[in-house]
Write a structure and sequence with these properties.
361 residues, mainly beta, 2 helices
Length: 361
């Protein structure tokens, strides 16, 4: 397991420029009464761009919807046309006695597999657990099941014990620590088990001294996935990538959209959280979510080449500052549109916004 260094450069040659709100809850729509937020994105076989938003109904029950993106005269996303629900908490492990949900989808189109790979949070009997599904058309999804992290002796713990979120895949194979070409996923385990068993508290992996949730990477060899797509749910070689480093991300960090290849390496837009969390499962928090960026080494994506010391975007607009969870900018998808990159993001757990990702140098 590697540890992040504190001496990475802070020059990230990108900025995010707001372009407006693209989706808000539809009056009278039962699946959206508590918000639309944190979308995945992808293109159907005919090339049409779609969002796959998290739709939240009464009781905080989430589903994954499908919505075709519309554009203004300049080609900037400005709205959606709803196409229904494509994933709901229908499986037993996606539901508890008093909760249910399939939440916060991230989608990566993986050309070598000819499939969209969706990660999502299954809010089941033991809280939030990551799961995967795959599709060729964004409409019909095949569940691969919950992610089953391989036991790793040097960590002295079982990653399957812990809640985990912000799972997202790289769009192409990358080198694993052992040198084998692999499909890789970023994820964010949370070490405090006090929510599950009173008094149990924090259990850190060996070699980790900071209990704040950070970004990890895990791998599955290409040859195993080619033999059986279900191998994607059995990652190994778990490696720490990044922990909180700056004030704007002082509580925790997590991955955002799928990394994209840029000249410097892999560009990862991530979120950082600052403020105070008294109850980690309460919706109303005294926190602020902002968006930053890292550039990961293409030869070893567990290594950070550069990192933003200031957020690329922090809550400023009314939709970002007022909502189910106030003060939230939560990036979850990047799509290229007419040669430009656009970031779709959750706004205060209530709306969906879009921002242009511009190169500055």
């Amino acid at each position: 397991m590697s540890n992040p260094t504190d001496d990475t450069a802070t020059t990230i040659p990108y900025r995010m420029v707001r372009k407006g709100v693209v989706m808000s809850p539809l009056a009278g729509e039962a699946n959206e009464v508590e918000g639309v937020l944190n979308p995945a994105a992808g293109r159907t076989p005919d090339g049409t761009l779609h969002l796959l938003p998290r739709l939240v109904s009464e009781g905080n029950v989430s589903r994954v919807g499908l919505a075709e993106v519309t554009f203004d005269e300049q080609g900037v996303p400005n709205g959606v046309e709803r196409r229904g629900v494509v994933l709901a908490p229908d499986e037993g492990w996606e539901r508890g006695k008093n909760n249910a949900g399939v939440e916060d989808p991230r989608i990566t189109w993986v050309p070598s597999l000819g499939k969209h790979v969706m990660s999502y949070v299954a809010y089941g009997p033991l809280g939030p657990k990551p799961a995967l599904a795959v599709s060729e058309n964004l409409t019909d999804w095949t569940r691969l099941g919950p992610i089953q992290f391989a036991y790793q002796t040097d960590l002295d713990t079982d990653l399957n014990l812990f809640p985990n979120k912000d799972v997202v895949h790289f769009p192409e194979p990358v080198p694993a620590p052992d040198g084998e070409l692999s499909y890789a996923m970023l994820h964010r385990p949370m070490w405090d088990l006090g929510w599950f068993r009173e008094g149990e508290g924090v259990h850190l992996p060996a070699g980790v001294t900071d209990e704040r949730p950070g970004i990890w990477i895990s791998y599955v060899p290409v040859k195993e996935v080619e033999a059986d797509i279900r191998a994607l749910v059995r990652p190994r070689q778990h490696t720490l990538v990044a922990l909180s480093e700056y004030e704007w991300e002082s509580l925790k960090i997590g991955g955002g959209p799928a990394p994209i290849r840029v000249p410097e390496g892999w560009l990862l837009i991530h979120h950082g959280v600052s403020g105070t969390i008294e109850d980690p499962w309460a919706q109303n928090q005294k926190v602020s979510y902002a968006a930053g960026a890292m550039i990961l080494d293409p030869a070893d994506p567990s290594k950070i080449l550069a990192r933003s010391d200031q957020p690329l975007m922090a809550p400023e607009t009314e939709e970002e500052m007022s909502g189910t969870v106030p003060n939230v900018v939560f990036p979850t998808a990047i799509e290229e549109i007419d040669g430009e990159l656009y970031v779709f993001y959750g706004m205060a757990d209530a709306h969906i916004g879009v921002a242009l990702l511009e190169r500055t140098a």
